[in-house]
Amino acid sequence: MTANAVLRAAGLRKEYGRGAALVRAVDGVDLDVAAGEAVAIVGASGCGKSTLLHLLGGLERASGGELSMAGERFDTMSETRLARLRRNAIGFVFQGFHLVDELTAAENVELPALLAGVSPRAARRRAADLLERVGLADRSRHLPSALSGGQRQRVAVARALVNRPLVVLADEPTGNLDSTATTDVLRLFDGLRRNGHTLVIVTHDSRIAATSDRLITMRDGAFVDETRLGGGARRLGSLAGLGG
Ligand SMILES: Nc1ncnc2c1ncn2[C@@H]1O[C@H](COP(=O)(O)OP(=O)(O)OP(=O)(O)O)[C@@H](O)[C@H]1O
Ligand SMILES: [Mg+2]
């Protein structure tokens, strides 16, 4: 138990199918994520990482267990309240970006803010600031189709941050990227961590894992190993070793 847990799961379960086809995708997970902590979750394909992230982000309902955000239970919330929590408190970065093709980079970032009731002017300002932070100020009027994979993912990260979420959840944020784009996105996440954002990142990339505060290994829907990683110097060292 951490006093300042932003996100907490207890006895979390998700089952699919039944009888002989029953899959225990998430099988009794306990997790406390502290404010400002960066947690990386690794494990073999099919071990339940995405399912866990979807439960933590309120995108899917659990079969059992409890979930809370900043001390407030959300596994029992109505759809309406859950939708509001997702919009205001959670930033989700999907592996496949999920940008709206017809909207520019800036409009994609503004959209969740507008849906949350932020004025168009303030939403525009936030989007411009965030695109600047992710190094895409000069691409704000581009459609996603005119951006590289790494640039699209950076827009998706900016969008995830626009409502100033309590926690950012990212599912394989470098999964579809070539190595240069991966390095960009890796640096971006390391920057978020150093700026005090709370992060839960599912990844196959050992370099992302190495820049987190805590590394959790999943197998068959459960946590089987947990490592606390050391200080910032080692992290910066590992980043410096990334090259171009
Ligand atoms: N909608 C669903 N219906 C039935 N089974 C599902 C469903 N979604 C996931 N599963 C099963 O649950 C298990 C966990 O899936 P999940 O997508 O969470 O794995 P993962 O760790 O994210 O894998 P990967 O690394 O390949 O993305 C898998 O065995 C998968 O087949
Ligand atoms: Mg997955």
Automatic annotation (TrEMBL):
Keywords: ATP-binding, Nucleotide-binding, Transport. One of its GO terms (molecular function) is ATP binding. InterPro entries: AAA+_ATPase, ABC_transporter-like_ATP-bd, ABC_transporter-like_CS, ABC_transpr_LolD-like, MacB-like_ATP-bd, P-loop_NTPase. Residues 7-242 form the ABC transporter domain. Belongs to the ABC transporter superfamily. This is ABC transporter ATP-binding protein. The lineage of its organism: Bacteria, Bacillati, Actinomycetota, Actinomycetes, Streptosporangiales.
